[in-house]
Amino acid sequence: MVNDRVMEKLEILSDAAKYDVSCASGQSKRANKDKGLGDSKGYGICHSFTEDGRCVSLLKILLTNHCIFDCAYCVSRKSNDVKRAAFTVEEVVDLTINFYRRNYIEGLFLSSGIFDSPDYTMERLVRIAKKLRLEQNFNGYIHLKAIPGASDELMKEAGMYADRLSVNVEMPTEQSLKLLAPEKNHQDVIRPMEYLKTEIAGHKEEKKRNHKAPVFAPAGQSTQMVIGATKESDLDILGMTNHFYSQLNLKRVYYSGYVPISGDSRLPVIGTPVPIIRENRLYQADWLLRFYGFAFDELVGVDQPNLDLDVDPKLSWALRHLEQFPVDINTADIELIKRIPGIGFLSAQKIVAARRFRRLQPEHLRKMGIAYKRAHYFLAFSSPFLRQPDYTASQLKQLILSSQKSKYAPNFSPQLSLF
Predict the structure, then answer these.
(1) Distance CA 325, CA 3 (A)
(2) Of 23, 58, 26, 22, which Cα lies nearest the Cα of 42?
(3) Which end of the chain, N or C, is surrounded by fewer C-beta atoms within 10 Å?
(4) pTM attached to this predicted model
(5) What is the pLDDT of residues 59-109, one digit of tens each?
C-alpha cells in the first residue's frame, strides 16, 4: 500500500520528469529467469503514447528535484521556487514493483536532479536498479539517466543493470550550454557517452565469444536536446545529431521544444509558443537520417539552415531536387524509392517485393497504402506521367498543400526570430 507521503512525492517528481522526453524503450532482450517478475522482449516493452508522441508506459520519475545547478532552462534549477521532494531508494523500488503488479507500467525510467555531487546521485540510481534486479528479481525494462561527471566505475555498474542509459546533452552547442548553464562543462556530457560507446561495443564482442557473458546496456544509449531556448539553427542541431549517430553510436536523439518557464532575459519570454512544429520536423529529419539513407547536409545547409515548417523534410528535399524525378517505380533501386514523398520505409520494401511478379500500376500502389495523392507527382509508370513538365517547385508545393489538411496548419506562418 502506497502511503500519502509517497503519493505526494510521486505527484511532485513525476510532474518534474515530464520535461525529459528521452524515455522510449529500446530493443532490449532481457528474458524472465528463475520465475522472476516481468521481462523485456526483443521488440521492447508495450507502449502507450500521448498525442504529442511521449511514452507513458514507464514509471517516469525523478529520484529528486533538488539540484546543485542553476540551469536557466530547467524547472528544477536551484533558484526556482518550486516544491521539492526526494524518494528514498526503497520507495522507488517499492513503487516500481507495486505499479508493475497492478499492470500500470511496463518498466522504469529514472532520472534525477543532482544533489550533493554527481557520484552521490549516480550511486543511488545504480542501487535502485541493482535492488530491482537482484533482490526483486525484476526483469522488466529499466532506463537510467546517467549523470554527467559521475565516475566510470558507477557508469559501468549502471550498464550491468539498466537496459538503456542516457546522458542528456541538453543544449545543442557548447556555447549555449555556457550561456544558460555556466556551471556545467560540455565535455562532462561527451566523456561518458564515449565511455559507454566503448563498453557497449566491448560487451557485444564478448557476448559473441561467450553467450554466458553479462549484457551491458543492451538497448544502447540515447540523449536529449532542448530546442528553441537558444538561437541555434536546424543545421547546428542536425549536425550534432549526425555526430552522435556516426561517431558515438547512439540509438536515439530526442528533441524537446523549450517550454518558457523562466523570466530570464537569456531565454524566450514566458508566453512564447512552444516550437511544436519545429520539434516535429526535427523528428522527421531524424527518421530520414536513421532509416532512409539521407545525409544531414541534404536536409539542411548553409543556404537553407532551417527545415521548412509547412512541409516535411522529405518533400522539401524532393522539391529542391526535381531533376531526380519522376521515378520509374518498376526499375528504380529501393534507396531512391524511399526518397519519394508519400512512400514510407515499409511501403518501399513492399514495392520492390511486388514488382518481381508484375509490372506495378497506380491501382497496385493505392492498395499498398501509400500516400498516393502526394506520391503520384513524383512517379512514372509505363503510361505517360501525370505531372505537367512545366510545374515549378513552388507550384507543386501549393498543389500538395491544397490537397491535404494538417492539425498544425495554423502554425505554418513564417517563423520570426526571438533573438
Answers:
(1) 64
(2) 26
(3) N
(4) 0.86
(5) 889 999 999 999 999 999 999 999 999 999 999 999 999 989 988 888 899
Tell whether the torsion through CA atoms of 375, 376, 377 and 378 is positive or negative: positive
- pLDDT of the residue at 18: 80
Give the pLDDT score at 391: 80
Of 285, 286, 227, 233, the C-alpha closest to 256 is 227
User: What pLDDT shows up at residue 246?
Assistant: 96
CA dist 130 and 89 (Å) reads 10
Q: What is the dihedral of CA 105, 110, 111, 116, to 10 degrees?
A: 140
User: Going by DSSP bridges, is the β-strand pair 107-111/252-257 parallel, antiparallel, or unpaired?
Assistant: unpaired
Q: How many whole angstroms separate alpha carbon 41 and alpha carbon 30? A: 6
What pLDDT sits at residue 58? 84
Q: What is the DSSP string of 114-164?
A: --S-HHHHHHHHHHHHHIIIIIS-B-SEEEEEPPTT--HHHHHHHHHH-SE
By the 10 Å C-beta count (0-12 exposed, 13-18 middle, 19+ buried), 74 is classed as buried
Task: Please list, in sequence order, all residues whose beta carbon lies within 8 angstroms of the beta carbon of residue 281, skipping any fewer than 6 positions away.
Answer: 234, 307, 308, 309, 312, 313
The three state secondary structure string of 300-361 is: CCCCCCCCCCCCCHHHHHHHHCHHHCCEECCCCCHHHHCCCCCCCHHHHHHHHHHCCCCCCC
Q: 293 is written with which cell numbers?
A: 539513407
Residues of the chain with pLDDT under 50: 25-27, 41-56, 385-388, 413-419
CB of 49 closer than 8 Å to CB of 55: yes
Q: How far is CA 39 from CA 53, 57, 242, in A?
A: 24, 14, 32
CA dihedral over 411, 412, 414, 419, signed as positive or negative: positive
Residue 342: how many other CB atoms lie within 10 Å:
20
The span from the first CA to the last CA of the chain, in angstroms, equals 51
